[in-house]
Design goal:
26% of the residues lie in helices and 46% in strands. With 94 residues, the protein is an alpha+beta fold.
Length: 94
């Protein structure tokens, strides 16, 4: 009986460690036509929101794809146990 309880607790602990959530939200849209270019910029934070390793700004995402006229901006946030948080900015335009 104790062995079964220990196995169930171990399974729950492993499941909790593998839990993650991803959410993509629209941030902005302009009257510019939807372009063929898509630019992204990603930053990953550790220990919640304390330390980030890069720049995930709209300007960086547009620059990465050579976009000068932005059509839409989306933000994708992925969280793993609130320890690792990744923000990805997705920009479309020409």
């Amino acid at each position: 009986m104790l062995k079964n309880v220990r196995n169930i607790l171990a399974l729950l602990a492993v499941s909790a460690m593998l839990t993650s959530c991803a959410l993509t939200l629209p941030v902005n849209a302009t009257s510019n036509t939807i372009g063929k270019k898509v630019g992204t910029a990603k930053a990953t934070g550790y220990l919640g929101f304390l330390f980030f390793n890069a720049d995930a700004s709209i300007q960086t995402a547009a620059k990465n794809a050579g976009i000068t006229k932005i059509s839409t901006v989306d933000i994708k946030q992925t969280t793993i146990l609130c320890i690792v948080v990744t923000f990805e900015t997705i920009v479309t335009g020409e």
